Amino acid sequence: MKIVRFEQVTCRYDEQTILDTFSLDVEQGERLVILGPSGSGKTTLLRLLAGFVAPHRGTIYIEENAVSRDGRILVPPEQRQIGMVFQDLALWPHMNVEENIGFGLKIKGVGTTERNRRVDTILKLVGLPDFRKKRPSELSGGEQQRVALARALILEPKILLMDEPLSSLDESLSRHLAHEIVHLQEKFGFTLLYVTHRSEEARIVGTRQLEI
Amino acid sequence: MKTRDLIIGIVILVVALLLFWKSGQEMTEKRPVVVVYVSEDRVFSEPILKDFEKETGITVKAVYDTEEAKSTGVMNRLIAEKSNPQADVYWANEPIRAEILKQKGVSAPYLSPNAKEIPKIFKDPDGFWTGFSARARVLIVNSGINERPESILAYTETRWRGKSVIANPLFGTTTAHIAALFTYWGDDRADAFMRAMKRNGVALSTSNGESADFVAAGRYAFSLVDSDDAVNRIRQGRPVTMVYPDQKPDEPGCFIVPNAVLLIKGAPHPKEARRLVDYLLSKETEHKLAFADCAQIPLHPDVEIPEELQPIDTIRIMQVDYAKVAAKLLEIQPYLKRWVSE
Amino acid sequence: MRLFLASIVSILLFIGIVPILAMLIKAFMPDDTIPSLFGSMQTWMLMRHSVILASLVTVSTFLLGIPLGIFLGKTDLPFRRFFIFLFLIPLLVPPYIIAVAWSDLFQMSGLPLHWLSGLPGSLFILVSVYLPLPMLLTMIFLHTVHPHLEEAGRLVATWPLTLWRVTLPLIRPALLLAALLVFLLALGEFSVPMYLRYNVYAVESFTQFSAFYNFEAATAAAIPLVLFAALLTVAENRYLRNRIAIPRHFAQKNEFLRITLGRNRWSVLTGMACLAAIFVAMPIGSLLLQAGGIDSYLRALHVAGDALLRSFFYAFVGASVLTFFGFFTGYLFLKKPFYAARTIDPLLLFLFTLPGTVIGIALITFWNTPSTNIVYATTLIVLFGYLAKYTALTARISLATLAMVPPSMEEAAQMTGAGWFQRMIHIVIPLTRHGILGAWVVASLFILRDISITILLYPPGHDTLPVRIFTLMANGSPQLIASLCIVMIAAVVVPAAVAWGWFHYWGTKR
């Protein structure tokens, strides 16, 4: 099944055309790596899918439902059930690890005990079992990366977007984490759209590569 | 942020906002209230209003004016509120404003029983305003001078050349006084007086109070000021005397500036308003204002007065129609501006 | 979200802009006053006075304020925090209090009062009042210069040369904004020139209103001031905003380059102390002397205690409401979800630069009808006045802090399914809480010192302390007035000092 579909999408930003009649199909369970020089529209692609920007022309579908069309956002980001790991990770500095990860569940009205259980499980999965009460500023780069991943995964999204998540880490660590991401994807079975400019990462993560 | 904290915060804010909003309204209509706008100096008027509150149990809510030149004027507020009156009573510190309010249709007629003995000249014939407790425009003279000026014409006499001072005629009672001269003498004679005064080297001060201080300090021989300015300096033991000018039969007489009280048309509390007007026009109020620092001259004949003052019926008063003075005051503004800046 | 923000904007527009527009239209209807106003020599003379005074104030505050800002914000001068706070005081109290203080000083020392009146006095007092503006803006914007740029300069030149050729040119837009702001505030200021009898245009517009009861002429006289304010707003919007409102870089404590004064520090310290003595210590000292002992303060509290409490209450409620509106306006302006959002910030700035009396008159004429007594006959009208005049402050502070929060913070919350209100409550507001608190403090200080709005709008019997002092000044004893002024200064300075200390504490903790 095609879980994501871009149909003749054009996107402009400040008079500059980033994407021009761009079309793309993504299969369920795929790990699509998007490669390209900076300014080529990799990040825009993710932001279009997440619903932060609307395409000027064209339609975007998720599971056959149109979510954005011709300059309008039909389904707002918070209702698209997509997970995303940002380039700067965007961990909320005023919350500890547990609160960061559990935030989405709290919003959905999941009770405290259930929430704690699920946070525990996910922390074990990403290898940070004893970090619940720490603040993001007390964590190393790799640890922060795992927390961001855990926060995205706890809601069990069908699609996960990752925008150069490992760019700030050194090579050996990022290689290690790239393998872990693959491992987690195989376990959860979500569809992954992964933006990077490093070819090695792309090779490890991707089942398919797209150059734009 | 904890949801609980947020709710507590919002509740506090809403309560504060409600309190804030309510605090400006009258709490209960049952307790009698009267709203008065006051142009007389707050220092002198507030004690009187407090006494009224104590004696009648009516709550007084007041808006006070600031010193004339600095004021935005409660009077403008009255005009602005004409279609939607908030005030019941206006206590003006001179009759000119009261006249203007009459002309603008802001005031309502009320002939107070307490005003019967007040001389006609100090009242609007239809009761649109009534005068009480007055200041006289007097000459304050330094005691070290051999001969005392007896008339405002001293300003134009060569022997007083460079020895006189007057407050800026663009402000306050000085403006009213000059407007009165224009009404009394006619434009030509008044204009000649003003020119002669200027030729004679009169100095300009910022206020009557400053003029009085200059004279007390001996910088100038005399100045035209309000009686309270002169009385104050005398009470401070400064070397000055007070002269009621132009008292001879063929002279214009002394210009008197009474307070004036008026009822607002469409006042929200008319009953209380009348009681306040009656109270202000009573002999007791005039007595208090005579013995306060403002030393105002009672207009009722038989009110006791401090020794520095002279009873109103022994002063030769400049006979002018305050309505005409009010009209003249507006008319001569451009003239006065030119006079000051030339 | 759109609905909520749109209603915030509409409320603000309705409270602020609509009355002004209504007044302007009314003023232009019977239009014989306007030609006569512009035709007379008197008008041009006043205009000349205004421009002379405002230009001199601008130039003087700049010549003093920028070096002051550099010494206090960029060097390791001892006690610099204390000095900054000291210089801020004249800006925090109603300007007329400084004028009263100086005339007290002249009176007590037997100096001729006429030295103080007219242009020299007005100039001096307005300089001491507005000096903190260029000083503060210089200090703040020095932090927006990237340290690498200065380091590159230091490799080839001394510090003074680097400051002159690198640092100051980089913050020129901010300095220009400060200059325009000072010019405009000085142009609209009437209480000081009026007290010292210097005839300027603002006084004229005011006298038209207060002495001749002529609303049309007063409005017409206000039009040049309105035009000046509009001009500034347009200029700011066109040339400066993007470089000022949202700083790209803000130096953290450890990366900010500080100049070591070395042996010069003592001479600089002495100079600073002299300036502080002239601008702050002498006027306040003369008030303290004039006020006398404890008794007179007790008497002052007896006379005006209720007004003091009311001042605090108004400041509390007003600042809270203003912060609320300012925060969402700032947010709106940053995110621009719809086109109208672009106009709201310039409009608020325009209202801020408009003289308070003009706003007051407009609000009276607009709200004063029997059907709107629920607003006009209550304290709500005062709140509306504050909203119209001061929301620009809270909006700007909110905008600056909001701009420093990476958009991904909110987007990440959006990805976890949080709606707009939830994102605001759980993410955006906690992340900007210090900015919000700062906006609240600034708003409350401005409301505490406000006189022009309150004096026109307060419901009978509900005045604030600055208004009470102003009304008692006519024939009140100098001792009473001085002690009231000291109470007023304490009422502003003590909370300000607490806030200052708190922010400092937070700053070092961070």
Concise summary:
The complex is a heterotrimer of chains A (212), B (342) and C (510). By secondary structure, chain A is α/β, with parallel strands linked by helices.
Explain what you see.
The complex is a heterotrimer of chains A (212), B (342) and C (510). With 212 residues, chain A is an alpha/beta fold. Chain A has six helices and ten strands, in the order βββαββββαααβαβαβ. Helix content of chain A is 34%, strand content 29%. Chain A is globular and about 50 Å long. Chain B is an alpha/beta fold and 342 residues long. Chain B has eleven helices and ten strands. In chain B, helix 4 crosses helix 11. By secondary structure, chain C is mostly helical. Chain C has one domain: MetI-like fold (Orthogonal Bundle). In chain C, helix 3 packs across helix 7 and helix 8 runs antiparallel to helix 9. The two termini of chain C are 32 Å apart. Classes of the chains: A alpha/beta (212), B alpha/beta (342), C mainly alpha (510). The interface between B and C is large, with 57 and 59 residues.
| SSE topology string of chain B | HEHEHEHEEEHHEHEHEEHHH
- Any idea what the shape of chain C is? globular
CATH class of chain C: Mainly Alpha
Q: How many distinct beta strands of chain B?
A: 10
Number of helices of chain B: 11
Order of helices and strands of chain C, N to C?
HHHHHHHHHHHHHHHHHHHHHHHHH
Subunit arrangement of the protein = heterotrimer
Q: Please give the CATH architecture of chain C.
A: Orthogonal Bundle
Distance between the termini of chain B: 68 Å
What number of domains of chain B?
A: 2
Q: Average pLDDT across residues of chain B?
A: 88
Q: Give the CATH architecture of the largest domain in chain B.
A: 3-Layer(aba) Sandwich
Count of the separate structural domains of chain C: 1
Report Rg of chain C: 23 Å
CATH topology of chain C: MetI-like fold
